[in-house]
Amino acid sequence: MTAAAASGGAGTGDPGPPLLDAHLVADRGGFHLDVALRVRAGEVVALLGPNGAGKTTALRVLAGLHPLTAGHLTLAGADLDRPDRRAWIPPERRPVGVVFQDYLLFPHLSARDNVAFGPRRRGADRRAARAVADAWLARVGLAEHARRRPRQLSGGQAQRVALARALAVDPTLLLLDEPLAALDARTRLDTRAELHRHLAAHPGAAVLVTHDPLDALVLADRLVIVEDGRVVQTGDAATVTARPRTDYVARLVGLNLHRGHADGHQVRVGGLTLTAADSVAGEAFVAFPPAAVVLHPARPDGSPRNTWEATVAGVQRHGDNLRVQLDGPLPVVADVTPAAAAQLRLVPGLAVWAAVRAAETRAYPVGR
Amino acid sequence: MPVALFVPAGLGLIFLVLPLAGLLARAPWATLPQRLAAPGVLTALRLSLLTATVATLVCVVLGVPLAWLLARVEFPGRRLVRALVTVPLVLPPVVGGVALLLVFGRRGLLGGWLDATFGITLPFTTAGVVLAEAFVAMPFLVIAVEGALRGADVRYEEAAATLGAGRWTTFTHVTLPLVAPGVAAGAMLCWARALGEFGATITFAGNFPGRTQTMPLAVYLALETDLEAAIVLSLVLLTVSVAILAGLRDKWTAGP
Fold first, then answer.
1. How open is the CA angle A206-A204-A178, to the nearest 5 degrees?
2. Residue A290 and residue A162 share a domain
């Protein structure tokens, strides 16, 4: 959340043209990508989506490793790829740095020579390139590992060398492809925090491709959610987590999501009428967290609102609680404490009553 | 222990080693020093090593780019080109020598022009030996390097491109170092094949001591008159080539 708060100023204050202005239309082996993307200087945008959504294709197109079939890719006012004007800048002449998913550090070069590779290719002499490399390695805390070969580095160190290598060419656009996916959980935590620091210091635009919502939420100022090659939702972390628009996003942020028809606070959904905290008219989404669903052995007294009879379909551990899948007029998941679960004797097939607190039931229109 | 594998493996090994043992068994050990000092032995050995090495260099300079072309560039007829490259492998070397004569001979397709324009004559010269050896040995290098290139991860080349490297720099600074073990293995095979080359050499370059008479040719010639001399020459060729290949192999396989 701090990421969104810290960089919100940079994102909203400047009404000028975005540094990266792209409408990426590309075809790759029967897959069609159509994604619009605008990123301001200093902004970090996460392309978040399930595997096969087209995130990596988008990144390859941005880097110039795959051509656009239509649309445009404009960076700092220059057309890098624009089929209708026959504009094409090859990858080696784009001011773009890439951190690849498995880093792709050159195995035959030391950490220093890996980082110096970019400056060297862009005209620096050997000594100057090495000086730049040493400075970057120091910035990522690997000064004393400069002479090591990639295979002598740990996963976290390799990731930092890859980041230093991408940043050493002062890219206008920094691209990161699942930068933390190859790390174990512990290293990931440290590396994520450090990556956040470097991204915040990067003056250019940054596009981060990930399927991990946590990476996206921590590292990015804005999320662009991609499914099947299209953008299904964009917004800052707060908006996306509070108001998911697809099942995928709802699952990512851990909300129950249903689509229905609203009339004021009442939303008709799946044969039920739910009372929501918000007042909406017309087609609407209803979202509520699993923790807002309370299970009762029998019909609860007193509060008839937002209750229905359901059947337990499955029970799984979820952190300190148990996550219960419920079948019925409205398939939802509920989080219950182990104590409550023991009291209810939750087993698949058991009939229970579900109740959702109206105060935690959010409704928002389907149309934007 | 899978007997079904060990028995044929053992038989295979015996089959390969037995002829060498025969060579050692029949070697005239008593007169070896004098025979080694005989005129012509050292000359032929030196010529063999020189021509095989130069032929290998020619193969590397021409064969690595050819392997790159076959592995990395899509073009119509690529399968046909790949098949053509391997033709010298199946062609009897003598036929290769004849074919070289038809092209580079005095009245050949290019030979006449080379002679008239540059005064270059290839048949029956040391350069002709190199040419014959390179013709026969190049497929070994191309096949080994193409295999290495196909096995190399092209994403390293993409990474190099995003760092500002053009195709040539990427090739020299990333691709070649990545496939260096494959190039080394190919060059080694290539050199070994060139060193043992006989048929194409004798057909295209003849058998002139000091100029085109390499060790295999000297062995063949000695065989007609003096079996023991042939054995000694064979032993020399065997010892030198095994020593060099073993030495290089250790150096390269221990490499990066």
1. 20
2. no
pLDDT level of residue A41 (50, 70, 90 thresholds): very high
User: Residue type at B68?
Assistant: W
Q: In what order do the strands lie in the sheet with A205-210?
A: A87-88, A78-82, A70-75, A20-28, A31-39, A230-235, A222-227, A44-48, A205-210, A173-177, A96-99
* C-alpha–C-alpha distance, residues A234 and A222, integer Å: 7
Nearest chain A CA: its distance from B186 CA (Å): 20
C-alpha B103/C-alpha B190 separation (Å) is 23
The residue ranking higher by pLDDT, A89 or A7, is A89
State the pLDDT at residue A335. Answer: 92
Q: Looking at the structure, tell me whether residues A94 and A115 fall in a common domain.
A: yes
B247 lies in a domain?
yes
CATH number of the domain residue B219 falls in: 1.10.3720.10
Q: Measure the CA–CA gap between A26 and A24, rounded to whole angstroms.
A: 6
Domain count, chain B: 1
Average pLDDT per 10 consecutive residues for chain B, totaling 256 residues: 88 92 89 85 92 97 96 92 92 94 90 88 93 96 94 95 95 95 91 93 93 93 88 89 81 54
Any bridge partners for residue A322, and if so which?
A: A317, A336
pTM (predicted TM-score): 0.82
If you ran DSSP here, which 8-state letter would residue A65 be given? S
Compute the residue count for chain B: 256
Higher pLDDT among residues A14 and B158, named by residue: B158
Q: Please tell me if residue B178 touches chain A, with a CB cutoff of 8 Å.
A: yes
Residue type (1 letter), A93: R
What pLDDT does A6 receive? 38
With an 8 Å Cβ cutoff, are A118 and B177 in contact? Answer: no
Asked whether the ipTM of the predicted complex exceeds the cut of 0.90, the reply is: no
Q: Is B127 in contact with B48 (CB distance < 8 Å)?
A: no
Mean pLDDT for A233-255 is 89
8 A C-beta contact, residue A246 and residue A232: yes
A288: CATH: 2.40.50.100
A318 shares contact with chain B (CB less than 8 Å):
no
Q: Which of residues 135 through 174 in chain B touch A, CB cutoff 8 A?
A: 153, 155-156, 158-166, 169, 173-174
Q: Which of A71, A56, A63, A65 is nearest to A26 (CA)?
A: A71
